[in-house]
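Is zinc ion placement plausible here? Inputs below.
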Amino acid sequence: MASETNTVSADKVVSIHYTLTSQEGEVLDRSGNDPLAYLHGHQNIVPGLERQIAGKNPGDKFQAVVEAAEGYGERMPDAQKTIPREAFPADAPLREGVQLTAQAPDGQLIGLWILKVSDEEVLVDLNHPLAGQTLTFDVEVVSIRESTEEERAHGHAHPGDGHGHG
Ligand code: ZN
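Reply from A.M.:
I modeled the complex. Tokens:
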């Protein structure tokens, strides 16, 4: 008899293999040799994918189509900003394609994606590179285990049996 408890649900550590494809059929991302382990119900993965994995069992293979609103968000207009280079901390990795986190005046953390770097200025985009896109995930649920107290406190999965950061 199948175990009712070994189902993707809140606070389980779920290991998946996945391939992420754009609407144009371009492969954007995929798991490596080892599956991706994440803590379910803690927003470790995009909401639409998390919602569609819920209730699955180890060995299940399925395709999840995730609209932008449940993926990386709709694309905001006028989200590209030119910022003087000296406004960044000296150790900031100012390279094209790097994601930085900045604190807005109201204290909220916002993501910035670097588009272009010159001697004087940095062109950033407040949109996630995949904002506005419908995402297709081909997913295989590899395994599911209980999380540790530490993982639940941290809000993410730890390698192996979940004790420590490895
Ligand atoms: Zn941790």
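Short version: The pocket of zinc ion is lined by residues 154, 156, 158, 165 (CB under 6 Å).
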